[in-house]
Amino acid sequence: MRSQRRQMLLVLLATFGFAGCNNELGTLDVASARLMQFGSCSDVEGHFKQEARSVAQHMAASSLYDPFGYLAQGSSADINYSTTNNQEEGIHEADLFQVDATHAFAIDGDRLIIIEAVQQQSGVAMQINDARIVSQVALRGEAVEMFLSGNQVVIVQRVKHQSVALQYSASSVPSRDPQLEMVMAVIYDVSDRSLPLLVREVAVEGEYISGRRIDDELHLVTRSAMGGPRPEQDKEVNLSELMAQVETAQLDDWFPHVYSRSFAVGVKVNESVARSDCARTFAAQSGGGDDAIGIYSIDLSKQDSRVQTTTFIGDGSIVYGSRNSIVVAQTNYADATYTDGSVENVQATQLHRFALADGRATYAGSGLVHGWVLNQFSISEHRGYLRVGTQMNRGEFDSRSMIFTMPVSAPPSDQDVMMGTEVPTLQVAGQLTDIGVREDLYAVRFMGDVAYLVTFQQVDPLHTIDLSNPANPVEMGELEVPGYSTYLHPIDNGRLLAVGTDTDVNGVKLSMFDVSRLTDPTALVERTIGSSGSSSEVAIDHRAFRYLPDWRLMALPVDEGGRKGMHLFEVGASSFTERGVIDHAQLLGVPGADARRAYHIGSYLYVYSGAGVTISDLRNLELRASVKF
User: Fold this and answer.
1) Exposure letters 410-442 (e unless 16+ CB within 10 A, then b)
2) What does pLDDT average to over the chain?
3) pTM attached to this predicted model
């Protein structure tokens, strides 16, 4: 059902002239989002050279190269344990901290630390009474996050090109700026937790966007600036000299490379440097940018497996992963044509879908929808459809949120592409375009055939959307509550946990909703932690949230104006009962220590901060052990 307030807003929009061109979405040219496939390495090189010529000619007119306007601005089977709080079940995301059935793995700056709990007999049961660091590994770069896959730990690091190049034969390494940023996946065999063994390093050029692990397949998504001869920042442009450099440049000067080394018992046994696969390279046709977005697929089960690469020249900032695909999204602008023939440049999001099969990502189509996407939770793939939640005109009188559905299909085979078969576009099959009129979008969560959206202006409407018929999304219900939520987490019995902001006191707000009846969502309980100046990392990183269904326990880090701790709540049928706060500054004796993650192994809760790890008994939250870094 729709609220009276919403119906009044729609009437106001029509009364004041917003129901015409501005209320009509207009038609987008979906075909313009399609990626163009290159046929050969010479085609790729030709593209780079043409782009470089265009940049040089454009910048020569202004004498100084200022692309961004800087000058103008000046597991053990019988022990249950946590994994990352993943968006999709079985699609693993990396984190700062991981556990398995026996050990905890932590990133501490430039170290990997492996922690083991020490147990002793207590009656008929074993109880933890201490913990120790069983091993630590010095890392060459800045550790970003890690994946844990059985007896393998994969550390994702930021490194500089010069540190990577020194490890390879000079003749195999392309010329690069020594300070060029690279992403390196370092794989350790931790079968013996006390003696981690380096088994492989894979480094790629560019900055890290995101990654996913699906069984033994690791997919890393990166963005790298186009290399080759280009005008230098703040320098006068000598057009003829630059053009001569462009013409003599080779493809290797532009194209991203993959650096791989494998080891046996710590000794290097193989190394290779290879540019990305030209035959699996594409370019955006419009509004794409000139970065190289790379999807690098690594088979973790085979130490010497070839790194599969898929590259497109364009842009992307949000990554969604499912068992079937990787979707890279980027909000920009596109022309919308209205029924009266007028054309307007509007916010629009390009979605590039890459199907996952045979250990690699294959381009499977692009779509273009109105509005911008909030984060990875704005995208979902389910039962053969891609679903996307967006917002138009945030902060403006005619703002609104929308849902689009698009059927997906298998990509054509390489042979079909060679024969001229085009990759299909992602065409909108169903849409709902008037959700939360004149409100801003703060959270999206897709679960099966349902979508939940949170919008906000003065109150927080929770919208329930039925997607069981993808061609006809229907808003079933709307619940208005004070404040707003930024993270939604479905649990059992048709309930939805939410973390956000209490706008009355500016504290961290916890909510639980009953969404078992889509037509009548209800608020079961609300609770506020802290006041003005309070915040939670959950607002910007879902991995900081933890719900343990077997223990009915919710954990989240909260900073109450400098007082930081992991807050624990028992989740009842319609209640939150505070169980306590784990304060690392107090427990570890480190001022300012910021508890950031909560994982469990069996009946023990492991809480991680930059200062160390504490282990508490989940039955009574008694501190059993701690390790200080």
Assistant:
1) ebbeeeebeeeeebbbbebbbbbbebbbbbbbb
2) 89
3) 0.91
